[in-house]
Structures are given as structure tokens and as C-alpha cells.
Amino acid sequence: MPPSSTHIRTLLTAYLDRHPGERDALAGLRATLDAAGDPTGRTTLPGHITCSVAVIDRDARVLHVLHRGLGLLLAPGGHVEPDDETLPAAALREVEEETGIPAAALVLTPEFRDLPVDIDVHDIDACPAKGEAAHRHYDFRFVFHLADDAPDLRLQAEEVDGAAWLPFDEATSPTLRAKLVASGLDGAIRPANSPAGTVPNVVGVHLYLEREGHVLLGLRHPDSAYAGGSWHTLAGHLGAEAATAGMVREAHEEAGLVIDPADLELVHTVHLVDRPGGRPRIGFFFRARHWEGTPEVREPDKCVAWQWWSAKDLPEPIVPYTRAAIEGILAGRLYTEMGWSR
């Protein structure tokens, strides 16, 4: 289900509480929310909602991508999809699709949390080739810090020609530029409303697929930002979703496997720090009791091969915590810690 009108109204109300002078400028958005239909639908006229993200790095610069065809540097973003449950979730999905930055590598700011830093209104010209009339976009813009261990940019070649990190006062959107300059953000990551010493943990899901004593492992692409050239379980970071839903999604996206969430069983958890100063990570390992499909390479930039290996004779090199988890599963243990100083 797409984001509900109630959810969108809540975000808009909170935004207007901060910026009451923009109430008249957003009258069209309020009318769209009052009308029947999906306010995020691409065919909703005379305007509909889109989402984008101001990704901020440690140097207080904001990420812009050069959109193919438009020739413009813009913050990553786009249309809301039917499966996006919230506007922040839609924005995070767009960031990952366009830049390769996963949601787990983006951190909410205490100043804005999951509320928009800016809501911009811009006119879109008619496009007869697509059968689109002239309309408006009401762009909800969210702000996230880039985590220190974020992967390198992996731009979507079909839509993005390049990227640039610009100082706040050079952001290409006038309204976003004004909000960022006035925001007080300095690039430092501070956990939002958390006790002193609290550190966000990266959460990942891993598929323990077993067949006649053999487990499925993938060979990471040698240029992969993580564990290049090593064997690893099918895995991925969680977005704004339940762990089982994330596991089902990753299994289909990476290997074309179809799994019912009810067929997943949590068999091991790993809590680790994989390098000095790195962010703590929590890995959930799920066994699939049943699945449909044959593993196929669907993301060749991440994984170049799938292979079944004896669980008792694992290949090298293999991600160390993957080996530890599989050995723990075979031994009947539910939990492993790695990398923590005692």
C-alpha cells in the first residue's frame, strides 16, 4: 500500500508548524490531499507527491546527482512506488536505486528525524511522448547523514550521469539551499534522542539455505565495496521493513528465489565489530524451510556466482562471521559475538 493521506498530513502539519509562512505556497498540496485518489500516484493531476533526500557528509556537503536527459544536478529522489509504506521509505529507496547508498548507511539527524527539511513545489512540462500533461510535483525532502562506513557511490547508469558533493550554499534548489544554510547541521553524526554513548547498529539479514548438507554461498564481486572476492551468504541491509520481509526481498532481488515469510526460521544471530572503529553490526541468519526457484546471478556487480558447499568444508576466502555463523548453526548455538574487546 502507498503512504496514507493521514501519514502525509502528519508530515505536512509538522512542517507547517516550523514554516507557517509557506501555508499559502502549499495550498495546492493541501487540496491534493483533500481530493479523492492517491496523492502519490504518477497519474494524479494537477499534481502529486515525490520524495528526495539531502545526503550530508562529514564535511557538511550535500550530494547531488546529474540526471540523464535533464542535465541538472539535483538531490537523489523520484516518484513514490505502490510498495512504499511511508514517504521516508520512498526517499531511501530512491537514494539506493540512484546512488547505491543503502538505507543502513544513512543516519537520521536529531534536528529533523523523519520529518521533511523542505517541501518544494515545481512545475513539470508536458511530455507528449509519455502521454503526460503538464503538472506539479510536491517534493518532500528529507535529510540524512552519510555514515562513515558507507560504500562508494554506485550510480544508476540508466538515469544518472554523474554526482557531486556541494556545500550547503551551493545546493542547486533555492528552497533546499535556504533550509540547509539555516539548519545548523555541521556534518557531525549524533544519535537522535538517544542516551549518551548510544551508537546506531547496522542490521542485516542472511539466508541460510541448506540442501543435503550443503549450504548456498555467493562469490562476491572482486570490486565489491564489502568482502570483494570472498564467499558469503545471500545477504542485505534492512530498510524500513520487518526482518523477514527484508529477507524475502533480498532473496528475490539477488538470486530470483521466492520464499514465503512463514517459511523462514531464525537460526543464528551475530553481533560484531568487523574493524577497529567500525559501526557495530547485527546479522540475523534465517533458514528457509521451503523455497521456489533455482539460484541465479541477478546482481552481477555484487555477486558473480552461486554455489552449494558442504557445510562442514567451507571454501576460502569466506567472510569470517559467515563461517562463525554456519559453525554455530551446525553446533546448535543461537548467538555469536566477534570483534568486541573485553
Automatic annotation (TrEMBL):
Annotated keywords: Hydrolase
Cofactor names: Mg(2+)
Domain of life: Bacteria
Pfam family, any one: NUDIX
InterPro entries xref list: NUDIX_hydrolase-like_dom_sf, NUDIX_hydrolase_dom
Domain (Nudix hydrolase): residue spans on this chain: 46-189, 200-331
Hydrolase keyword on record: yes
Flavoprotein keyword on record: no
The name this protein goes by in its record: NUDIX domain-containing protein
